[in-house]
């Protein structure tokens, strides 16, 4: 079966798969606001978007005449481009707002900017901000839909959705899979959103990392917690690596990149503990030789570029679901 | 000369003598002339009487932790607006924190506060002065001159001095002038970028946590320095069980040690933050329910001596930010008593024991004559209807800022009348 031929009925997700569209949320602020039915619906919608994106003529007109503003308080070329392409493929008018964070106090900028943008009557604002909870705060100040494109160390819901879609297309399901999320869990919004989503879909979640990169209470968020990479990867179906920020590996938290890679970097030796058909994922951008060996990043088990493709599809699905009130278009 | 006033038909509660009985209070010239337990005296002809209708009459509250915006941030709160809030909350005296702009670290500024307060305030405002110049934790202020100007205590407000040698010197020098030190403890390195209690909630919200040890480690240091120097040391606001344990141990060997607690850490927990509600961003942070219960126990068993409002007005601009970027603090003067009465209604603490932490205990720490129903004491009194139901609404509060942690809270018990030096400064309208 090719991925493109799947319908929603093919995905055993541990819940009743909806046959009708009824997504009725106004915002996508975090995975914590979604139930398994809604998650499944977004993934199913995204499957259809993959097909559209693979056609020579990629235009769909479901959001024609609608205005999407990408408001990125933190730089992120890839996520912003992904949202921009997603909106444009649906026919929306997409505007990228450059935000100066240095000149004004951050908080004032956020509220002021929200009020200003709101007055321009957009249909959706896609927001990334360095502070946890900032996107939710902004959503309270505007009349339109808001999509969280990453807030602080809180959530990055579209990343978790695109990861889930990538896993589902490769493994055919989410429930019952063992997924090991590895590295700097404490500082990762990607890890939080993924733990919430995979937990909701009945995957067996593991976190793996040095103790000082595992946040308090993590044992309540993941099914299993490991500080040893080999144990943590044992019989895993999916190995999800996280980006390590360089400044944390210079003596502040981790003594050196060399030490980190030795114990927690993904190389052939450690990956051998996972299942033979385990896939390797990374939200990007990668630090080759820090958290992942180049041979693995570019090797046959890596689905990292597929994740990027799924990113556009998931974001199309999210934008359309929010702006059309879940009605099939 | 003022007319005498007899407050009769009252349930008199005097924490200084641990009494809670029917009686009457006779006020003359702004002072308590006599306290009559049991039947009221025959009032001489022409004496004014006030029928308390069985309500509680107690000493006015003494709040050891109040910030205003005067001088420097008068739009947040002035001494006058804070005094209105205080009178409505039954607070007849408060200790003003020095964290104003400029910082109260100079005799002339203490003098300014004393004069502004006497010109504009309905209640008694006692200035504190900074321990360190500019609250920078580096150089001592002029303790002797500040005391002479009227400072009642030394404190760096919400700032915590990090240097052990600086603290040792400050404690020793404060002992020299027999002045109390009120210190808020927080290890700045362990706090780091922390903005709420460390734990699963902080992790889930993606907010940096503040561990208990950021409080207990500097507290343990302070308590040993207190032993070493003999200073009157007050741990201004503790928030967790381990801190209470440290204070309890210290008290067994050192009777100069005391501890304070914010009404917020007594009544609220970290769950109140919900989804990034910045009004609940406080310092010390709201802890878990277990820790809150430990604070209730510590208040009941006397480990914690003083309950305070931690009144800290913040403008909406500072609060309407992402949680980590929002300012700390909440107003509390008007809700202070009513919120604390929840514990009395739940029978977790007796009324007289609770009021001791808000009257006689702070009076002793600050060396005030108020805070007791005793002959010759200032007639700073409050009438409390313990069962008066009300709902807190920002718009009704007298503070200039609205950052209350008790918005929409249903409370039972309210101050009906407040007297300062025998004058009525607040009366609840019917």
UniProtKB/TrEMBL annotation, chain A:
Annotated signal sequence range: none
Annotated InterPro entries: Asp/Orn_carbamoyltranf_P-bd, Asp/Orn_carbamoylTrfase, Asp/Orn_carbamoylTrfase_sf, Asp_carbamoyltransf, Asp_carbamoyltransf_Asp/Orn-bd
Catalytic reaction annotation: carbamoyl phosphate + L-aspartate = N-carbamoyl-L-aspartate + phosphate + H(+)
Protein name: Aspartate carbamoyltransferase
SUPFAM superfamilies per record: Aspartate/ornithine carbamoyltransferase
Binding-site residues, L-aspartate: 106, 189, 243
Organism: Maritalea mediterranea
Gene: pyrB
Coiled-coil region list: none
Entry keyword Transferase: yes
TrEMBL record, chain B:
Pfam family, one: DHOase
Gene: pyrC
Enzyme Commission identifier(s): 3.5.2.3
Zinc in keyword set: yes
Organism: Maritalea mediterranea
Protein name: Dihydroorotase
Enzyme type, top EC level: hydrolase
Amidohydrolase domain mapped to chain residues: 346-426
UniProt-listed Gene3D superfamilies: Metal-dependent hydrolases (3.20.20.140), Urease, subunit C, domain 1 (2.30.40.10)
């Amino acid at each position: 079966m090719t991925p493109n031929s799947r319908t929603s009925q093919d995905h055993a997700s541990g819940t009743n798969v909806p046959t009708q569209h009824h997504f009725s949320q106004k915002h996508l602020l975090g995975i914590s606001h979604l139930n398994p039915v809604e998650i499944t619906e977004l993934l199913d919608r995204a499957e259809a978007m993959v097909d559209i994106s693979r056609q020579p003529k990629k235009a769909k007109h479901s959001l024609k005449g609608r205005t999407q503003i990408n408001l990125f308080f933190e730089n992120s070329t890839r996520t912003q481009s992904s949202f921009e392409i997603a909106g444009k493929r649906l026919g929306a008018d997409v505007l990228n707002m450059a935000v100066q964070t240095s000149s004004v106090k951050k908080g004032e900028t956020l509220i002021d900017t929200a009020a200003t943008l709101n007055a321009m009557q957009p249909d959706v604002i896609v927001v990334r901000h360095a502070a946890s909870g900032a996107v939710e705060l902004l959503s309270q100040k505007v009349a339109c839909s808001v999509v969280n494109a990453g807030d602080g160390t809180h959530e990055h819901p579209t990343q978790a959705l695109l990861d889930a879609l990538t896993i589902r297309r490769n493994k055919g399901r989410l429930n019952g899979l063992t997924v090991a999320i590895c590295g700097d869990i404490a500082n990762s919004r990607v890890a939080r959103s993924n733990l919430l989503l995979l937990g909701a879909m009945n995957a067996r979640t593991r976190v793996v990392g040095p103790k000082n990169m595992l946040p308090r209470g993590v044992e309540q968020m993941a099914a299993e917690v490991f500080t040893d990479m080999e144990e943590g990867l044992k019989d895993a179906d999916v190995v999800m690596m996280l980006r390590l920020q360089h400044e944390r590996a210079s003596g502040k938290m981790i003594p050196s990149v060399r030490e980190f890679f030795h114990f927690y970097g993904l190389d052939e030796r450690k990956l051998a503990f996972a299942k033979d058909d385990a896939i390797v994922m990374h939200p990007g951008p990668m630090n080759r030789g820090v958290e992942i060996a180049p041979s693995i990043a570019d090797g046959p088990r890596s689905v990292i570029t597929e994740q990027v493709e799924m990113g556009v599809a998931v974001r199309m699905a999210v934008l359309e679901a929010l702006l059309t009130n879940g009605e099939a278009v | 000369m003022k007319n005498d006033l007899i407050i009769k038909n009252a349930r008199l509660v005097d924490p200084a003598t641990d009494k809670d009985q029917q009686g009457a209070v006779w006020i003359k010239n702004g002072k308590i002339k006599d306290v009559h337990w049991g039947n009221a005296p025959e009032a001489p002809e022409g004496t004014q009487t006030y029928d308390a209708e069985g309500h509680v009459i107690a000493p006015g509250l003494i709040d050891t932790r109040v910030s205003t915006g005067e001088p420097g941030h008068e739009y947040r709160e002035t001494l006058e607006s804070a005094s209105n809030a205080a009178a409505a909350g039954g607070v007849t005296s408060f200790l003003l924190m020095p964290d104003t702009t400029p910082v109260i670290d100079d005799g002339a500024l203490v003098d300014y506060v004393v004069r502004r307060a006497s010109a504009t305030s309905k209640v008694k405002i006692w200035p504190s002065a900074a321990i360190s110049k500019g609250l920078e934790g580096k150089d001592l202020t002029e303790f002797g001159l500040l005391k002479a100007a009227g400072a009642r205590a030394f404190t760096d407000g919400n700032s915590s001095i990090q240097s052990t040698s600086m603290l040792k010197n400050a404690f020793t020098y404060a002992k020299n002038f027999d002045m109390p030190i009120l210190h808020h403890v927080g290890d700045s390195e362990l706090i780091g970028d922390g903005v709420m209690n460390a734990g699963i909630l902080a992790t889930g919200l993606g907010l940096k946590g503040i561990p208990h040890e950021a409080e207990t480690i500097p507290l343990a240091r302070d308590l040993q320095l207190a032993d070493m120097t003999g200073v009157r040391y007050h741990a201004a606001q503790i928030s967790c069980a381990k801190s209470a344990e440290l204070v309890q141990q210290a008290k067994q060997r050192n009777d100069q040690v005391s501890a304070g607690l914010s009404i917020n850490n007594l009544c609220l927990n970290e769950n109140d933050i919900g989804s990034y509600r910045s009004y609940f961003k406080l310092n010390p942070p709201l802890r878990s329910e277990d820790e809150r219960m430990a604070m209730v126990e510590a208040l009941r068993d006397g480990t914690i001596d003083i309950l305070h409002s931690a009144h800290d007005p913040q403008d909406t601009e500072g609060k309407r930010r992402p949680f980590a970027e929002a300012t700390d603090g909440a107003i509390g003067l008007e809700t202070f008593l009513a919120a604390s009465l929840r514990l009395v209604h739940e029978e977790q603490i007796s009324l007289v024991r609770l009021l001791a932490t808000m009257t006689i205990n702070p009076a002793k720490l600050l060396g005030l004559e108020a805070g007791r129903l005793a002959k010759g004491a200032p007639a700073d009194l409050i009438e409390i209807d313990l069962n008066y139901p009300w709902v807190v609404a920002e718009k009704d509060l007298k503070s200039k800022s609205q950052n209350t942690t008790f918005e929409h809270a249903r409370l039972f018990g309210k101050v009906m009348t407040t007297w300062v030096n025998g004058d009525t400064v607040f009366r609840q309208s019917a």
